[in-house]
Structures are given as C-alpha cells and as structure tokens.
Design goal:
The structure is a single chain. By secondary structure, this protein is of the alpha/beta class. The protein has one domain: Spore Coat Polysaccharide Biosynthesis Protein SpsA, Chain A (Alpha-Beta Complex), CATH 3.90.550.10. 37% of the residues lie in helices and 23% in strands. It contains seven helices and eleven strands. The strands form three sheets. It has a seven-stranded mixed sheet, sandwiched between helices. Strands 2-3 form a two-stranded antiparallel sheet. It has a two-stranded antiparallel ribbon with strand order 8-9.
Length: 238
C-alpha cells in the first residue's frame, strides 16, 4: 500500500510575530537547533506505512528546505513542491504531484511536530478500512455558540470533536473532494470538510492527543520546548 504524506508549509505565520530566530514563519522557527518542519518530518520517517513525504513550500524557500532535508539523510523519499497562497491550494498542488498508484494520502500540519508515530499508524489503518479518518480530541471546556459577544447556546461536548491532523483519505476520494471544492469556489480550513461535502463516505475519528499541539503563536513555543525536552529525556532513558 502506497501512503503519501503531505505537509503544507507555505504559510507566512502572521500570528506568530518575529522571534529570536529572525523569522515569523512558524514552520522554520528553531527547536533545539532544528526547524519545526524538520522535527515533523522526522516523526513521519519513523512510520512504517508511510511511503513518501511531500512538503508544499513557498517558491523562495524550496532550495533552502531541500538542503535541510538532504542533511537529514532521510530513510524515505522526501520532496518539495511549490505551494499556493492558501493551505488548500498548497495541498492541491502536492496532490497533483502524486503518482497514480498512491492509495492513501495523509495531510498533516507542518507545525504539529509532536504527533506520535503510533497514532499515525492507527489513523492510516482506519482510513485503509473506511476510506477516510482524522485524528481528533473531545474538548474539555464547555463550548458556547455566540453571536458577537452574546451566548446563543451551549453545545453538548459529547457530540463535539476538535479536529487535529493527520487527516487520511483514499487518494481518489481526496482528489474528487478538491476538484468539487475548486468547481464550487468552496474554501475550508481542513481536508475533512472537503470530503464531507461529497457525502460518499463517513469520516472516522481516531482519538488524538493533547500533546499533538499546533504551534501558531509565541506562547506555544514554550510548551513545544517542554515537550521536546521530555521526548529527548525519554529517548535517553530508553
């Protein structure tokens, strides 16, 4: 089974601001001397079902990223493609670069470097069975529906999931979902939303992890450094 992983990494990181690393692009900010993107790639290189990794980048970052990836001496093919102005465009560009024999596609936020490879294996296995699966967690906080600053209702948590990545789909299904979205000029914040619109399959949810954080703002970096230190300590202990 050929499984391709797409890492959209063409964002400008407008919420992050500029840190000591001299960049506002969160995917290139450094954790223990390596960009967040590289930490994320390392996790997927550990996943046995993964066949290749495709990183969608801004054109001006492609050569630099190729150099970083080459230094990693990856055990599986890792290549870069030019991304678009939006996440959706970047993922579609990467999809267009995949070979026809691809069976499953996993899309993962480049700035979620703490994904557990065991969890990746689990969501891939579920998608292989059902056609579509995402990682998600049940919210622990009470969720309110509001209009402006006024509460309209309280949503029952047992029916809610906070979507994470990876999100994994049959290649043909995801291609049709993107084609339909392009035809309808529909934009979504995740790939599952596009697949849901087709109403061809039910998307399964695999229980995720609170550690699978998405680094989007400066305060997230402190937690990321803590998680990385714990990972390094665990490897040393074992």
């Amino acid at each position: 089974m050929k499984v391709s992983v797409i890492l959209p990494a063409a964002g400008l990181g407008t919420r992050m601001g500029r840190e000591k690393s001299g960049t506002s692009r969160k995917q290139f900010m450094l954790l223990e001397g390596a960009p967040i993107l590289i930490h994320t790639i390392r996790k997927f290189l550990l996943c046995a079902p993964v066949s290749e990794i495709v990183v969608a980048l801004r054109a001006e970052d492609m050569d630099w990223a190729r150099g970083l990836i080459h230094q990693e001496r990856p055990s599986k093919p890792v290549r870069v493609v030019e991304g678009g102005e939006t996440r959706q465009q970047s993922v579609e560009n990467a999809l267009d670069s995949l070979s026809p024999d691809t069976e499953l596609v996993a899309v993962h936020d480049a700035v979620r470097p703490f994904i557990d490879p065991v969890l990746v294996d689990r969501v891939i296995a579920e998608a292989a069975e059902s056609g579509a699966a995402i990682v998600g967690i049940v919210p622990v906080d009470t969720v309110k529906k509001v209009h402006k600053n006024k509460i309209r209702s309280t949503l029952p948590r047992e029916h809610l999931v906070l979507a994470q990545t990876p999100q994994v789909f049959r290649f043909d299904l995801l291609k049709r979902a993107f084609a339909a979205a392009r035809s309808d000029a529909f934009t979504a914040t995740d790939e599952s939303s596009l697949v849901e619109r087709l109403e061809e399959v039910e998307v399964s949810v695999v229980q995720g992890s609170d550690r699978n954080i998405k680094i989007t703002k400066p305060s997230d970096m402190e937690l990321a450094r803590l998680f990385l230190a714990e990972e390094l300590a665990s490897r040393t202990a074992s």
